């Protein structure tokens, strides 16, 4: 059992306690960031005259060699080590001798693991932003191709007013744009370096924390050593943002599942993102969409786990904080996989445009426009609302749409109806005359697409 703290102890730790305490099985994914942080720390130590330049070079060469050997499979990370930090230090000492024993000068595992998690989470935020940009780009492409694909818009899952598929997809585009902005917000707050905080109270060595932060591309060092080692706010923020991404993906998945049903038949999901039934040969199930919807609860659970872990911890570091890693890793992995698969599924969706338009026509989605028509002829809106309500009831009894009625039948409800009513309540007119910012007309949606393209072009972390 390789550990960094044996000097004060005379007895061996219980084997079960060792396994319970160890984190090597999951924190080994910190290998790259731990090497990165240790190299920066060594450079700073040499610059400050705490170690020699030769020792610094040996440390950096040794760390690079360990990293390369692990990646090639020549060196295996095993559970004989407590954590990734002890693995690296033990192997470094074995390779370069006493110089390896100096790499930990002026730091604690507390600020070391705080640094590793920040570096790892920061890298994940950047990758997640890239995946969100892919999703937004995919949606913008789909919007361009569906400016005149008419469909019903819904409230309460009841057909409400006609929109276009482009406009409907644009709603999700806005959601994911906000998700992308949250990535930048989180990055801005988290990008400060805790290394040099020591266990909780800094160190007597003349460290240059600003130089270390600069080497690791942080904006600067954290400003309180106790907060440095015990802060997980950035991780909670990140998991909260990931939960919001999953909420958006789940809502979208729910709609695709509904649209894919036999009753709607708005979409056909590509075979690559569907599965069949072991007993019913006719089935084509939207499993990827359902799994994305289901995994949302998993990510919510990761967030609640971290919040609950942190809620009762006094300053500064406590071992409870080791529980942040598995939850954070799981959330990052889950959301990354869901974004990749969901976006690929989106690209291959086939829309049954005829069914969508027919559904909008048969759902009285033009009823509001019929009322507006009467208002335009001089009738007070509340009276117009009542007239169209009775008209809809008449159509329900006849099992027809407003468009199917003759002018004579319409005039039975109001003499204000004239031949121009049929043009006024056509799906195209209902959609295209809505020209305000954010509305479903092609003109308005084109402006939204242009705004989305500018947003992606200008976005940087």
Descriptive key words:
461 residues, mainly alpha, Fumarase C, Chain B, domain 1, Fumarase C, Chain A, domain 2, Ribonucleotide Reductase Protein R1, domain 1, 3 domains, two-stranded antiparallel ribbon, elongated
Describe this structure in words.
The chain folds into three domains: 6-105, Orthogonal Bundle (Fumarase C, Chain B, domain 1), CATH 1.10.275.10; 110-358, Up-down Bundle (Fumarase C, Chain A, domain 2); 362-458, Fumarase/aspartase (C-terminal domain) (Ribonucleotide Reductase Protein R1, domain 1), CATH 1.10.40. Helices cover 61% and strands 4% of the residues. It is built from 19 helices and four strands. The strands form two sheets. A two-stranded antiparallel sheet has the order 1-2. It has a two-stranded antiparallel ribbon with strand order 3-4. Helix 6 runs antiparallel to helix 7 (165-190). The chain starts with 14 loop residues before the first helix and ends with a helix. The mean pLDDT is 95.
Brief characterization of the structure:
The protein is mostly helical and 461 residues long. Helices cover 61% and strands 4% of the residues.
